[in-house]
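General statements about sequence and structure are easier to judge against a single worked case. When preparing material for the folding task, we compiled for one chain both its residues and its backbone structure tokens. The amino acid sequence and the backbone structure tokens for this protein are reproduced below:
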Amino acid sequence: MKKHYDLAVIGSGLAGLTLVRQLLLRADKKVLLLDKSAQVPTPRQKLGESTVQVGAFYLSKMLDLEEYLLTEQMLKYNLRFHWK
């Protein structure tokens, strides 16, 4: 049996994952996400320091991930932590 996809996204980094999520929320399309890693997202994947506020807004409000972020991620409160 052949599988049909409307769109293929190569790479499950931040751009690939957010694009796929936005497509699935707003369009009736079947999307194939391809990545070389077996686990998506990878355990070490993170946002850069300079994109935390913009990224958090985009992920929580635009991609409807606010509940997930509040329950599964550590809150930062715009503070920088420096450990000795």
Notes: The mean pLDDT is 80. The two ends are 58 Å apart (CA to CA).
